From TrEMBL:
Residues 6-190 form the Ketoreductase domain. It comes from Sediminicola arcticus. GO terms for molecular function: 3-oxoacyl-[acyl-carrier-protein] reductase (NADPH) activity. Coiled coil: none annotated. Its EC number is 1.1.1.100. This is 3-oxoacyl-ACP reductase FabG. Belongs to the short-chain dehydrogenases/reductases (SDR) family. Keywords: Oxidoreductase. The gene is fabG.
Length: 245
């Protein structure tokens, strides 16, 4: 198992890509701490445990600094370490530039960008003390190329890439790697109801002529969290079927 005896925190681990990451990491031997506001996170943790894995669920928002710090302290106290942080939690509030409200802009910044900062700042002391850590944060290919109607979202994902590279320089000497993953269009709960004709148009625009499933993205996270990527840091791994070629 590639993550045997590792302690991994996965934010937004209740559904979609986060759920796939949680399940895959547990299968690979990690104890998975799912951190989310959605109650279905408990179902994911229960399912992992029923399958012989190890998982916990905690209702904590990535925007609540004191709650994040308290949870991380609790996890470190219980297990003696935190090996992996997966900054996956994210939201969208799509609207064109002229129609986007300040509240919609701020909400996405708070979760997708500041939430990643809060969680990484909270975990850093524990990883430094253990001289080991894997930080993998959710970017997006729209952070590389922009996207119509996603001023706020694209800005956060570009920011995540820049922060990840910065943390590589700041934390590398402590044995901590920091990377980002930029998925393309992925079949998650948020897009389940997309019209068939729209989905076909999206497929046609992708060189591989298909869309990603959550597990396709989760395998990228597994690689960057594993020992196989011990010398990989400061990269943004794009998993989008060749769209951002």
């Amino acid at each position: 198992m590639r993550l045997k005896d590792k302690i991994a925190i996965v934010t937004g681990g209740s559904q979609g890509i986060g759920k796939a990451i949680s399940e895959l990491f547990a299968k690979e031997g990690a104890t998975v701490i799912i951190m989310d506001l959605l109650p279905k996170g408990q179902e994911v943790a229960n399912s992992i445990s029923a399958s012989g894995g190890k998982s916990e669920f905690h209702t904590v928002s990535v925007t609540d600094k004191s709650a994040v710090e308290a949870l991380f302290e609790q996890v470190n106290s219980k297990y003696g370490k935190i090996d992996i942080l997966i900054n996956n939690a994210g939201i969208t509030r799509d609207r064109t530039l002229e129609k986007m409200s300040e509240d919609e802009f701020d909400a996405v910044i708070a979760v997708n960008l500041k939430g990643v900062f809060i969680c990484t700042q909270a975990v850093a002391p524990y990883m430094k003390a253990n001289t080991y850590g894997r930080i993998v944060s959710a970017a997006s290919n729209v952070g590389l190329r922009g996207n119509f109607g996603q001023t706020n979202y694209a800005a956060t994902k570009a920011g995540v890439i820049a922060m990840s590279k910065t943390w590589t320089m700041e934390l590398g000497k402590y044995g901590i790697t920091s990377n980002a993953i930029a998925p393309g269009f992925t079949m998650t709960d948020m897009v389940d109801n997309i019209p068939e004709e729209h989905l076909e148009a999206i497929k046609a625009s992708i060189p591989l002529k298909t869309v990603a499933q959550p597990i396709d993205i989760a395998y990228g996270y597994l690689y960057l969290a594993s020992e196989e990527a011990r010398f990989v840091s400061g990269i943004c791994l794009t998993i989008d079927g060749g769209t951002s070629r």
